[in-house]
From TrEMBL:
InterPro entries linked to this entry: PPR_rpt, TPR-like_helical_dom_sf
Stretches forming PPR repeats: 12-46, 47-81, 82-116
UniProtKB keywords: Repeat
Listed name of the protein: Pentatricopeptide repeat-containing protein
PANTHER family: OS03G0856100 PROTEIN, PENTACOTRIPEPTIDE-REPEAT REGION OF PRORP DOMAIN-CONTAINING PROTEIN
Sequence similarity: Belongs to the PPR family. P subfamily.
NCBIfam families per UniProt: PPR
Keyword Repeat on entry: yes
Gene3D superfamilies hit by this protein: Tetratricopeptide repeat domain
Amino acid sequence: MKEMEENKCPADYVTYNELVAAYVRAGFSKEAAGVIDMMTQKGVIPNAIPYTTVIDAYGKSGQEEEALNLFYSMKKAGCVPNTCTYNTVPSMLGKKSRSSEMIKMLCDMKTNGCSPNWVTWNMMLALCGNKGMDKYVNMSVP
């Protein structure tokens, strides 16, 4: 990054997204989240892609609170979660038996006009069906 700046080649969305992905692949979720902060400081407004990448990494490494904090920071910053983001968070919560939060997040998805896809439905069927919560499958997602 420093060499790019020295050569008057400013980083763009693609550069930052790749840097986030590289940190995540290397197991450095906190550093990946720092790149999102760096983007903002440099005037590059992050979209849902880097946020979702880090949220997913936090969730997979058992850092659910960090994932949720980043999700809420994302929304507070004005970045609209996409279907992939909304699939990542409830899946993480459901796997940790945080069912009420999972259902709340899926309702938030519906409220914010984000359409579910086949991943959403498969996740709902797997998580709710396995936990005896099949009644929520029809209630939560449009």
